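One record is given unchanged without comment:
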Amino acid sequence: MKSIYSLNPDVVFKRLEDRMVLVDLKSNQIFELNSTGARVWELLQEGVSVDTLIDRLKAEFEADPATLRTEIESLLSDLLSEGLIAS
């Protein structure tokens, strides 16, 4: 997957220890990401491709590569469906 996603400018976020809190200013919905999700969000800020994002997470977290890819793709799909990121 070579896609690069951009953050929705109407979403504000703050890291709170190992988590990330996101607030969609248009809907006033609040979302919370765990430590892995928070790291994904930070990498999305850098504008890296999904493949690069997954490679970096493999180096940072001890996880099965296939499982990691599946979970990251699921998270990205959720973020897209909530309008928090765009492709």
Summary: Residues 58 and 64 are 8 Å apart (CA to CA).
